[in-house]
Amino acid sequence: MKMQPSLVACSFVFVLVSLLDSTATTTAPQAGARSGFHLVLDRGWRFVKGDPAGAHETGFDASAWQVVTVPHCWNASDWNTKHAGFYRGPGWYRRDLAVPGSWIGKRIFLRFGAAGVFAEVFVNGQRVGEHKGAFAAFAFEITRQVKFGARNVLAV
């Protein structure tokens, strides 16, 4: 029996929000200069196996989804089975992100340590980008999609 490749075997390794000063240049920072900081987003995620319609939209209710911490592997318990019965379909992760008004003037990036085979990233219902390539790191700038001084919704 030929096994079909898993669409998504495991999810995020980790997710960060990086803030950089919008005036930062591509040259090396001077000693002691602060070019930004990182906020780790490992907690507060909700997860569901499947592909519910509208899961990327801001008004979608994910309150019944499983609460998870990343890194998270949604079929880790399936790997030890003797048959090829592990889940090979889509799944969604969502969480809120408060973006303080004090971040205005900063560039904001979402950085993923890794994600399973394919990932689409949405901020406030807007598609930011996609990643294909299994467990490799990737990032997207989300400065234009966030609402400063407000709650924002991340969906992957």
Largest sheet: 6 strands, antiparallel
Topology, number of strands: 10
* Mean of pLDDT: 79
Fraction in beta strands: 35-45%
Strand order of the largest sheet: 4-3-5-10-7-8
How would you portray this structure in words?
The chain is mainly β. It has no helices and ten strands. Strands 4-3-5-10-7-8 form a six-stranded antiparallel sheet, with no helix packed on it. A four-stranded antiparallel sheet has the order 2-1-6-9, with no helix packed on it. Strand 7 (118-123) and strand 8 (126-132) form a beta hairpin. It starts with 14 loop residues before the first strand and ends with a strand.
Tell me briefly what this model is:
This protein is mainly β and 156 residues long. 0% of the residues lie in helices and 38% in strands.
Q: Which labels suit this protein?
A:
156 residues; mainly beta; 4-stranded antiparallel sheet; 0% helix; disordered N terminus
Please describe the topology of this protein.
Blueprint lengths: L14 E7 L14 E5 L4 E5 L16 E3 L22 E9 L6 E7 L5 E6 L2 E7 L5 E4 L8 E6 L1
